[in-house]
Write a structure and sequence with these properties.
The chain has 3 helices and no strands. By secondary structure, the chain is mostly helical. The protein has one domain. Helix 1 runs antiparallel to helix 2. It is elongated. It starts with a helix and ends in a 9-residue tail after the last helix.
Length: about 70
């Protein structure tokens, strides 16, 4: 799997997990403060779209993953 696809999958997983932990109706609800993490992930995705900088992509590249085409 390419770096881009791993980043997209990881971001999606973290958003769903943080929503589950932050929304009061969820069976795994912990605290509404988890919604700040959701906002952070969204802001990071937005800034990476404009700047091309993504910390996870840098880590994956150092671990030897190959870049590819996301779509």
């Amino acid at each position: 799997m390419s770096i881009e696809r791993i980043v997209l999958a990881f971001a999606g997983l973290m958003i769903l997990l943080s929503l589950g932990l932050g929304v009061a109706g969820s069976p795994i609800f912990q605290s509404s403060n988890w919604l700040w993490f959701t906002a952070f992930i969204g802001a990071n995705l937005l800034q990476s779209a404009f700047t091309g900088f993504c910390p996870l992509a840098l880590i994956l590249k150092k671990l030897g993953r190959k870049p590819g085409h996301a779509f």
